[in-house]
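One example copied in:
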Amino acid sequence: MHMDLGAAPGVPTVLYTQRQHELDTLFSSLPTPARSLEGCWRGRLMAIRGFGWLPRVFARMLYALLGTPLNPWSGKSFANGTGANRWFGVRGAAFGRFRVVEQAMSPVDQQPVVWLDYDVPENPRLLRHIRGEARQLGNGLILARMNWKTQRGLYRVLYFTLVPG
């Protein structure tokens, strides 16, 4: 069995070997997306909290595996200032809704971001702690991070990419 360890189209493969602190540095240098996020976007997970100890080659293989149908999370959809996570395909079931704030300031690095706020009535209480941030990595390529809000602050959970899907 051959597993494609490459990136999604347009996504530099090296991203899948980066540690959270390396992606933090990259993320802080990026601009907000030039246009509003609309439609369906395919996603790919990386730099998951707790896996930083993995050798880079194994991290890359893990994140490649998470880019297959074994991972039910497929990406996100956006429409009119709201959005949802997509499961079992980018046009699949929507769960985990969020409000999109186009020009918010990141509480992490105090730079402009697109803010994905999961503290909306449609979500179960547990999901309301999620705060996403998105910036443009390239043409049609978004680098985003998922944060978990607690009384003590925000904790980075993971990074992910989004490409139009």
Q: What stands out?
A: The radius of gyration is 15 Å. Helices lie at 20-28, 56-65. Residues 13-164 form one domain. The chain has one domain: 13-164.
